[in-house]
Every structure is written in structure tokens, then in C-alpha cells.
Amino acid sequence: MLAFIVKRVLGMIPAMFAISILAFTVIQLPPGDYVSTYAAQLAQSGENVDSAALNALRERYGLGENMVVQYTKWISGVLRGDFGDSFEWRQPVTELIWGRMGMTALISICTLILMWLVSLPIGIYSAARQYSVVDYLSTAFAFLAMATPNFLLAIVLLYITTMWFGVSVGGLFSPQYESAPWSLGKLWDFITHAWVPIFVLGTAGTASLIRIMRANLLDELHRPYVEAGRAKGLPEARLILSYPTRVALNPFISTVGWVLPALISGELIVSTVLNLPTAGPLLLQALKSQDMYLAGAFILLSGGLVLIGTLISDILLAISDPRIRLS
Amino acid sequence: MTLEAKPFDPNELLDQQVTAGQFQAAGQWAMVWAKFKKHKLAVISLVVVGLIYFVALFAEFLAPYDPGKFDPRYTYVPPQSIGFFVDDGAGGSRFQPHVTGYKIELNPVSFRREFTTDPEAIIPIGFFVEGQPYKLWGLFDSNWHLIGPIDQSQPFFLAGGDRLGRDLLSRTIHGTRISMSIGLVGVGLSLVIGMILGGISGYRGGMVDRVIQRVIEFIRSVPTIPLWLGLAAAMPKDWPPLQVYFSILVILSLIGWTEIARVVRGRFLSLRSEDFVISARLDGVSEFRLIMRHMMPSLYSHIIAAITLAIPNMILAETSLSFLGLGLQPPIVSWGVLLQDTQNLRAITQAPWLFIPGICVVIAVLSLNFLGDGVRDAADPYAK
Amino acid sequence: MQRVRIAALAGISLFALATSAMAQDYKQAPELDALVSSGALPAVAERVGANPRVLTPVESVGKYGGTFRGGMVGGNDRNMLFTYFGYEGLLAWDADWTGEVHPNIATGYTASADSRSFTFTLREGMKWSDGSPFTADDVAFFIEDILPDEKLFPTKPGWLTVEGELPSIAVISPTEFTMSWSKPNGLFILNAASVYGVQLALLNKAYCSQFLPKYNENADAEAVAAGAAGWAEHMVAKCGVGIEAIERWRNPERPVLEAWKIVDPYVAGATRVTFERNPYYWKVDTDGNQLPYIDDLSIGVNAESQTLLLSVLAGEIDYEVRHTTNTTNLPVIAEGVEQGDYRISPRESRVGNVMTISVNLNSQDATKAPIFQNKDFRIALSHALDRQAIIDTIYLGQSTPQQVSPREGTPYYNERLATQYLEHDVEKANALLDSIGLDKRGGNGMRLAPDGSPLVVNVAAVTALGNMADAAELFVQYWQAVGVDARFNAMDRTRFYEEKTASQHDIVVWGATSGGIDVFIDPRDYFPFSTESNFAIEWAKNYIGDGGVEPPDYVKEQWALYDQIKATSVPEEQNELFQRLLEITADQFYQIGIGTAVPLYSIAKNNLGNVPDGTPTGWIHPDPGTLNTEQFYFK
After folding, report:
1. Which band of pLDDT confidence, cut at 50, 70 and 90, is reported for residue C178?
2. For B44-57+172-378, CATH number?
């Protein structure tokens, strides 16, 4: 088991490097750089911008150098824990991202757990009672949810919660709890705010997980051993839960591999609409103004989060399926 | 039994037996179709999808107006409904398709245009009216529109007006063409890349397979939105709209091919060990012919299913990108661009008809999903 | 004229002194009572100094207490904090923007007859927010130690330099100093009262000098130890330095002169910025109550404006004028008035036009340049537009057609400039275009250039600034109707800026700036003045000495006239020179405009008192700073 984990972790390292190269390239692709953004801002507020001064700034930030050099500088800094400085905010990136990434991770994980908790029982029930009312309803809901763009859902929900329920708008905390230390009150406040983004993010994923669980379990339910168990007189519920479910669970667990990146991506758009203190709005802003160290750090960390998620899913899979452990 | 000079042709024997009434025969596709027809929802979806693509094809004809046409008097005008009978003044009614006009009042405090239906203002409408001229597909001059007001200066807003007083129905119809074609073409690109790479991976196995697998895993683990954002932000904004359109396509399909590659690889791996493949190889069939003539056909159904399920993802992706302002830009009209207008409270509270393109997205995606489901069920020879 | 002004200001200061001497028993906010009785704070009379500014409240003397709630939008909205709570310069403009300059930190000023030197008198006993005295040394610190530094100020503010020369300062006493140049700086007082003037009294010498090597030889080492790249970065991080620097709102330790000081700083990732009362604030009301009335500020950070709008509708914002108050949102806001318990206060916008259409006279394309420089081309484009339809569609009819010009009703209005070529006359447009050699048409019905090649004109606008992009789409339709193959290019702001600075654009659509008294401070729309004069950026670069292309004589004449304006501080002379300048602008018809500035509005909760209505908005006249937010109170 340990060897398995070690092997997987080692396999992650080249992936992380590849992601870092990708992140860096993507940031550098747009023509111009942060100094151009800065100059645009200056000009808009009426300051006369001197091109000599701009070039001096470029030199100071090291933006004029060649791509490979810039990348090497950046990555060696990252390995030391120094993610560089954000041009726009004029603060070290480390001060900006950890809090935000923490929130992103928290929301994504909460959503993931909720998705499992909801889709598992419904999926099992749909398969066991095929063509029942629950089955049709969940199928209909699944398809509808997968077809609706989540930002649309976010806007509508936000409006409804504000106008009809009078909940304080957007964000994850009410003003009085924002900087306060964690307490029961703060937890409750968090829950009352967080259900909107979790609901929006989770619907599409829950829907497809239900479909997958249902399909997998249906495959298993037609197997001979289930018939045999029934013939032997096992009660239906115990039969289904003990045997076919465990087998059907395998592909289900492996879904973490792709659900987590989808969640993090979706989180980006939704959190911009809902004004959440997560990575999304900051990343969007950084990409638009080519604040490259900030944006690069976010992409790197998101990728890392996803790789960790895949690792966990692989470990869970290995625990539940001995075939994988031994292969 | 006579000894014949030409080689034995099993199909000929089969034809004889069918004519003789011993068997009923049907080709592979006929069977698929028969199974498909049983799935009612999928059939309905096929019709719906067909309709949508029909609209996309004939957008200029079906839309009452050019998507850019604006009317300052009708900003945020609510939709009109079609009536069929009017009072003929003598107590009875006659058949006259029409919409009702509006009395417009500008609220001096909120500066909102308030539209009240004016029962006196009957605006006759007709089919195949002469309206704004256009070039169908950029080739054929015409000015026939399927439906429209007989007097072109009268307001005709079946789906309401947007903030510049443009007809939402026309814009949505034109948007159909862009959104649906992005789905189609983008998926086509993904298909080519996916089939090639997935095929090589599955057929060859070994090192090549492992490398391609790692690449696929890597691409799937990168969160797509930051990637898209970065790529979309990289595009020079002064490119002509068509170029932007194609580069968005390329960007989207660069992510999308992994799913198809996975499917193809999986099938190839299991097919490799199938009897008919082994016997064909032993027979001395060339590799190329082996893949194209023997293995591919059992793939078609899976590929069709994968395509029909990938198109909606591509549509949703384009919608999200355009919504963020990083995909297509005005004056191109796509559903995503139209949905940008909904991202404010004014639309939600006072002009809910602006969400109609969103409903179109949902319907298109839904029907494509059902269609894909149906095709997958029908085409899988191993399913019950 | 100078002497009358001196006398008037002297009179006001004497009166203020007199009244302040009479109101010796000042009152303070109840929340400070405990601190004073425990000895943590000195008594209020000592804190406000011997000569506080006496402010007359707009409606009535207010009550102490309450927390003001506001909202910012986007990643870098520091100017919201600046315009709302950070407008404290030596002098100030009043809310109605009559052009009258009022004493603020300074009790008055005298200008030399040749406008070369200006002497300011400060307030006796005025203190920073940490209790240390504010003196002329703080201003001298800025002029002598900060302003000339290349690292802290790589580009010098234009209003402080006369032909490149920085001011020199002579400190006569702790409450009196003189700034001077070797040549006249006629617009100095105007600038000192504008948003830019806040720069002069921004930095506390006692606190900020510790970051300068001149005063602290370990400054660089300490900076690096604290994690900065060098002393300059550390100085900026701790003291802000520039008026628009975001760091100005980041350091709670930095002493300030404003009514409130920072508690929760505006760092990246912050969701809320909070302020508390400045106990040493140097203003009182007519009853002797030390301002501000409101105890705390709580400003939320929103990722985008729709969430702020929702907050407004939910009644959670006490005053808002910056992000949500535009014509698009007006209907929604108007309908939420009762539920949100706020009122809509109409405002006047004093910009020169709702937008400017700039045809690039400095185009680098050899075929297009002569066409764009031909005035008849621009006249034709102007006649091709149906301004009333555009105004009705986008601005709900709230504007009248006008070209880019100072506003009617100000002494700077030029009728010819404002009203020429406004008619929607398609025939005339076509005739003009035919007459300048664009009479041949290509296969698609669009006009060809004189050499027979297709003439495609790109019209660029920034999509994030909604109205301009919408308008550009409409313009393109009108121009196509007269055969000009115009294409709309949506852009983001950075790309837009890059393109136009390199003069690669054909036509850009942007906002207009000055239309009131700020025409002297920023006349970018009236002649090639800065890189924001979108119609002739290369000529403007030549003006500011950054390369560029030498312009024709009529532009040089405008530059000479503007230099003369800067040399005098007599308003009548400045006006007359400016009218001559505008005559040339009218002759040349640089930019095409659409209509008069659309009225704006702001939102105030019904329980917020002392909020004036109907006053002009702006940036150079920083709204709502000029409303004196320190005298807002909760009823």
C-alpha cells in the first residue's frame, strides 16, 4: 500500500512541473504585460505617462527578459516558497493567495462531500427501483441541471435569496462575522451564505454522479450473483447494499478525478457572480490585468489541488478495490 | 452442388435465403434505427435537434429582422403575442393574424419606458413578408422573411426587445447559427484529434500508450477555466470576428478531445483481443485496412454517442466564455453573448424575456443529451 | 484683482478666527469622553487646535454616532475611498463648483502679482491623527525630499512643474510657507483646490522620514529586512506617497489629516475596509461640535457592481454615487426606493459630452491618413449620425445633441464649437464623401479609397464601459448606411490603451472629460494635450516632449495660447485666451460628439442628513469629497 502511494506521489511531480510551465506560458501569451495595464490605468486618471518611465518599470520588474529566464526565476522562487509579488496589489503573492485558496478548497470539498451524500442514495434507489417516480424525477432533474449554465443559476438564486428571503447579500459572511474568530455563530452564518454557491456548483455534478451511479449499479444488478443472492433469501435492501453497490462504487470513486477540476473551474465563474472571497474573482482580475505572478500562482495551486484530489481518489479506490492494490 | 469458379460470397447466400423467406435480414444501421425508434424521448430529441439546426441554417430567412436593427422607442419592450381574430366592426370577427401595438409612456422618475398594450393598435402580420434584404449564406440575395409585420415600420417583437430596442427573436435565431455550429465544428476537430491519438494509443499499446495516457490525464487535471481564460485573453482583440470565432473553436477543442480519445482507446484495447480481429490479422489483412474496415465500424456508435454528448459541453463552454467577456464579442451574436445582457438586476427584475437564449441553451443541451443517450443505447451491440 | 482676493480671504480667516475664539467650549463625540477623562486623549479644545475650520452644515447641526456603510467594486477601487473620505487639500472647492476656492487646511493664501509665488497660512495648533503637530515642515518635506526623488516620483505631476521646473519652498514659520517657481504658474491655485492638490499635505514628516535614507541611514537595510525590495518600495508600502496609491489605505499606523483613519486596511483579498474616528480632526461645526459626526466607516469590497447594486436595493448602503448610479440601473433603483428606504438625488455632470468619437489624425496608414485628416470626412461622419435616435436609445432621451465643447452656462462655452454639423443629413454626408474622392464603390456597395483599394475603418470601444460599446455598434450602422465600411472592434481597456498610444487606431470611442472650470486643468479634448487626446496622440507626444510628430501651425498656436493661460492667474484673461483657443478647435473640428452630458444621480439613505442635492459630480472636482462627508450624520 505504501509503495503504491509513494509511486503515485512521485508520478505527480512531473505533472506539477508541466502545469507550472503551462501556467507560465498562458500568462505570458497575451501581448503586452503588466506595465501596459498599469499605464492604461494611469492614463485614465489623467496622469501623463512617460514611455521612459514605463521602460524603467519594466526593467525593475524584470519583464523585458527572455521567457525561459523569467520562468526559471519564477519556479526557483516557488520552490523556496516565494511566489513573487503581485504588481497590481503591490504585495507578495503569498499574502494574497493562501486565504483565498483555502476558501476555494473549503467550498469545493464541501460541495464534493454533499454531492456524494446526495447522489449515492438517489442513484442506488433509482437503479433498484428503475422506472419508478423517483427514477424519472431524478433523471429529469439530472438532465435539466446539466443543461443549465451555472452562472445563470447563480444570478437568479442570488436575486431570489436577497429579495424574497432578505439574507445579506453575496459573500460568505455577514459583515459582523467577517473578521471575527470562528464560533458557532460564525459557522451558522457561513452555512446560511454558503448554501447558494454549494447548491449552484453541486447541481450539475450531482446530476451526472446520479446518472453514473445508476448506470453502474444497473449493470451489476443484472449479474448472476445478485440473482443467486435473491434466490438464497437475502433481504433485498441488504443484498443490494452489501454486494453490487460495493462494485459499482469503484467507478464512482474514480470520478473525483474529474469532478474536482470541474468544481474548481465552475467555482471561478460562480464566485465572481456571487462575490465570494475565494480564488475566482482574484484570478479573473489577475488574468485581465496580466498580473502574472498572482495568476500563475493561482493556476499552479489549483492544478496542485486537483492532483491531490486525484491522489486521494486513487488511494480510496485502492482501499476499496483489492485488484488495484495488487496490480 | 456445383463447383463454381468465383469465390464464396456469404452475402449472396444470405440474399438468396432472405428472398426465399428463410430469414429476415437487416443491415447494421437498420437495426440500430429500429432500436433507436423504441426510445421515445430520443426520437423527440432528434426532431428537436433537427429543428434547431434547421433554424441555424436558414437564420436569415426565419428571423423577422437583421440582428443589428434597433429602435430607440422600444428599448426593453415586452414580448407581443399573436392573435388570430379581429373584430370586423360589425359584431363578428374575421381571420387576421396580428400583434397588438403599445402605448408608450416614459416614467419621469425612473426613466423607464412603460408599455401598455393598446387594443386599438392592430398590426397585421403575414407570412413570407418582404422585409430587410439579406444574403442567405452570403450568396443568395433575398428579402423574404418567414414572418413579420406587413408594414415594416410597425413594431414586431415576438420575444421582446433588448436594451437597444433590438428584436430578441431575430438575435436569438441568428445566435443559434453561431452557437450550434461552434458545437459541431469544435467537436469535429476534437473528433479528429481524439480518434487519431486514441486509436494509436489503444492499438499500439506499450510506451506510446503510456505517454499518451499521461498527456490525457494531465490535460484533464488542469482546471479548464483558467486555461481558457488565459488563452482567450491572449487573443489579439483586433482580429476580425471570424478569426476570433475559429480560434475559440480551436481552444475549446484542444481540451475536448481527451474524452473521445479515452473512448476510442478503451474500445480499441478490448477489440484487439476479439476473435474477428485476430483472425483478420492472421488472414494477412494490412494494418490500415484492419483498423479502418474491421475495428472502426464497431466504434462508430460509440463515437456518435460521444459526439452528441460533447456538443452540449462545447455549447456550454462557449456560453461561459462569452459570458465572461472573453469569448465571442459583439457584434457577433451567440447565445453566450446574448446572455451577457442578463447579468444585471435590470434584466432579472424588469425584462425576464432576456433569458430566452438561456432557455434555448437548456433545450439544445437537453435534447442533444437525450439524443446521445438514445444513440448510445441503440448502437451498443452488447446492450440488452 | 489679486488684492481683492487677498482681502476677501483675509477677511474670512479673521472671521473664522474670531468665531473660533468665541466657541472655545467645543463639544466632542460621546465615544471619546471616556478616553479624555482617563487621560488617554487631551481635551477637545487642544485636539482641534487654536484655529479649526468652521464648517456650516448643509441642513442642520447633526448628531454624533453611527456607522456609515458603503461599497467598493473591483480589484483596485482605492479612488472610492479617496473621493469619499480623502479629499483634504490646502484649499477646497465648494459643493456647487462655482469655482470659488475656500480655505481648508490653509486659512488663506496670497499670490504674487506675476503668479510665480504663493504664500499659504496654516492653522495654529492643527494636529495629525496621532496628536503630532501639522506644520509647514510637512509640506516642505514633500516638496524638498519626496517630489524631486526619481524613484518615488518617476513622472512629476504636470501641475507642479513649470516647463519642467519643480517648485522651491521657503518655510517662514510653522504656519506659513511660500512656494515659488522662476516662471509663472497661473493655474496653480486651481489645481491646489482640485483633487490633485491633496498631494501637498499628504505626508507626515515625523513618521515617513524614517523610511528615507536622507533621515535614516539604515532605511534601506530595514526595508529589506521587512521584506521590501528597497527603501523606495518600503516607503510607498508604508506611506502611500501618491494620492491615488492604494497603499495610502493600508497602514493604520500612518498619521492622517482626514476625518477617519484606517482600522482594517485595504489589502488584497480584504472583503471589508473599516475606519474609525480621527480624534484630532481639525474641523468643527457652527455650534462648536468637533467633526465628524459619524463614528465609523464600514466599506465592503464587491467583486462586481451587481452585488453592490443588490446591497443598495436591500438598503445596506448609506450613500452611493460611483458604481451603480447610471441610467441602466435607474429603473431598478427607482422601483426599490421604498423597500430600501433611500432616496435618489439627481446630480449634474459637467463633462464636455456623453462621448467623443476621435478620428485618428495621426494615422500611420498611408492611405487612410490623408482621408482622416480631411475635415470634410469628419463632417460627413458627423452628419451621418442620427443623434436623437442614439440619445433616445442609449440615454433614455436625457441629452440634447451637441458636439464636444464646454458646457452651456459656463463662461467657457463656445457656440460654434458646440452646435456645428449636428443635423442628421444623409444626403449631405454622401455628397461630402463623394466630393473628397471616395465616390467609387466596391462590390459590396462600400466606398473605395481614392487608389481603388477597399477602405475599412475600424471603430474601437471598450466593452466594459457599456454605453460606449453599444453606441459604437450603432455608429457603425449609420456609417455603413452612407457607404463607409466601418467595423466595430470590442476591446478590453489595456489593449485599447496600447493601440491608441501607438496611434494604430482608426476611430476610437471614449468619454469626454472637462466641460466646466476643469477645462483649464485638463483640456485634452480641445487640443493635442496629452496621450488622452485620442485624435492626435503623436502631436500630443510632441507637446509633452516624448517623441511624437511635429504638428501643423494651428496646433502650435493652441499650445502657445495655453502656455499664456498658465502664465496668468487672472480669470478674465484665462477665459479670453481660452476662447481664442476654442475658435481654432472649432475651425479644425477634431472630435465628433453626440450630446450634452447626461444627468447623474446618487443614492442616500433617508436617515442620512446634511447631504446636498443637485450638485455637480466629477473627478477633478472630486465628488462626494466636495460635499464634505465629515458633516453627514444619521438622524
Report:
1. very high
2. 1.10.3720.10
